[in-house]
Amino acid sequence: MTRLAAASLAGTAIEFYDFFVYGTAAALVLGPLFFPTFSPLAGTLAAFGTFAVGFLSRPLGSVVFGHVGDRCGRRPVLVASLLLTGIATVAVGCVPPYETIGVAAPALLLALRFLQGLGLGGEWGGAVLLTAEHAPERRRALWASFPQIGPSVGFLLANGVMLALSASLTEAQFRSWGWRVPFWAAGGLALAGLLLRASLAESPQFRELAERGARARVPLVEVVRGHWRLVLLTAGALAVGYAVFYAVTTWSLAYATEELGVSRTVMLACIMAAVAVKGAGTPFLAMLGDRYGRRPMCLTGCAAVALWMFPMIALLRTAQPLLMFLGFLVAMLAFMTMFSVIAAYLPELYEPRVRCTGAAVGYNLAGVVGGALTPIVATAVAGGPGPPWGVAAYLTAIALLSLGCFTLLPETRPVVAGSEAGEAPAPATA
C-alpha cells in the first residue's frame, strides 16, 4: 500500500502540476501576450476563458478514460493520461505569442488546454481507484487520500517554479521566456511519473470482474441509465471544492496583483503557504473520515466554507500578507475537510463495473461548475472601488448548493453500512 500510494501521489502531483502551471500563467502573463488587443480586464477574462476550457474537456476525458478503466483496467489509464497531459503542457511552453503568429497563438493555446483537461479527466479516476480498491476497507479513506495530496504538491511545484523565476528575472525576461520554463519542465516530470507507474499491479476488484466476465460493455450507458441522479448529485456536491480552490489560487492572485498592488511574489508565497498546510493536513482529516464517516466530514466542510467566504474576502482586501494567508488557510482547510474523504466516498457510491466512469464523470463535472466558472465570474463581479462582496456571495451560494447535494447522498463507510471486516460494502445506487 505504501508503494502504491506513493506512486499514485506522485502521478497526480505531476498531472496537477501541468494543470496548475497554466492557471498561474493565465493570472500573470497570458492576457497581455496572447490577447494584447483587449483591455487589461478583458485580457484577463480571455486568459481565464482558455483556462476554463481545460475544465470543460475534463468530463470528456473522464468518459474516454473511464471507458478504458472499466473495460481494460485502472492501470492503463494512469499511463495514457499522464503521457497526454505531459505532451500538451510542454507544447504550451512552445506556442509563440500573438505578435508573432497572430490569432493562431490563442487558437493553439485553446487546443492544448483542451488536451490538458482531457488527460487530467482520466487521471483522477485511475489513480484514486487503483489506491482505493487495494486499500483495507477500515483505512480506505486514509490510503485513498494520498492521491488527493497530489494536487497540493503539484500546485506547490508549479508555483514554486513560478515564484523562483518571478523573483530572479526582470519583468521583461519573465514575460519574454521565463513563464515558459515551468511548461518545459513538465516533460521531465512526466517521464519520472511513467517510470514510477510502470510496475504497479492492477486493482484486485477489476481482476475479479475480468475473470468473471462481469465488465460493463459500455460503461457510460450504464451510468446514464442507472446512476444519472448520483452523478448529478456528486457533481453539485463537489463544486464548492473547486470553486474555493480556484478562487484562492487563481482569481485572488490576479485580483491582488492588479487591483490591490500586492507584489506577485508576496501573493504566491501567501497562497503556497496555505496550500502546503492543506496538503499536510489531508491524511489526518481522512482518518477522521474513517472514524466518523464520509458524509459528516463533507457536510462539515461545506458549512465551514459557507460561513468563511465573507471573512476571507475582507482579509484579502486588507492586502496584508499575514491576514491574507489566514483567510486562505481557513478556506483551504474547510474545503479539504470534505475533499480528504472524496477519494474513498465516490468509489464506494458506485458498483465496481462502472466505478471508473461514474466516479470520474461526477468528479470532473463538478470542475465545470466550480473550477471553470469561478475565475471568470469572480473577475467579472469584482469590479468597483469597494471589497468584492459579489465574489463572497457567489462562493457562499456554491457552498450552499453543495451542502444541499451532500444531504441527499447516503453514508458509505463500511462499518456504518454494517459490513463485516473483509467484506466490501454494498454500493449505493441513487
What is the element layout, followed by pairings?
Layout: H1 2-34, H2 40-71, H3 74-92, H4 98-101, H5 104-134, H6 140-168, H7 171-176, H8 181-197, H9 204-212, H10 219-259, H11 264-292, H12 294-317, H13 321-349, H14 355-381, H15 389-407, H16 414-417
Which descriptor suits the 3D outline?
Answer: globular
Category from helices, strands and their pairing: mainly alpha
User: Terminal Cα separation, in Å?
Assistant: 30 Å
Determine the mean pLDDT. 84
The CATH superfamily is: MFS general substrate transporter like domains
The total count of helices amounts to: 16
**What's the CATH C level?**
Mainly Alpha
The percent range for helix content is: over 70%
Total number of domains: 1
CATH architecture assignment name: Up-down Bundle
CATH topology: Growth Hormone, Chain: A
Total number of strands: 0
Assess the beta-strand content as a share of residues. under 5%
Major beta sheet summary: none
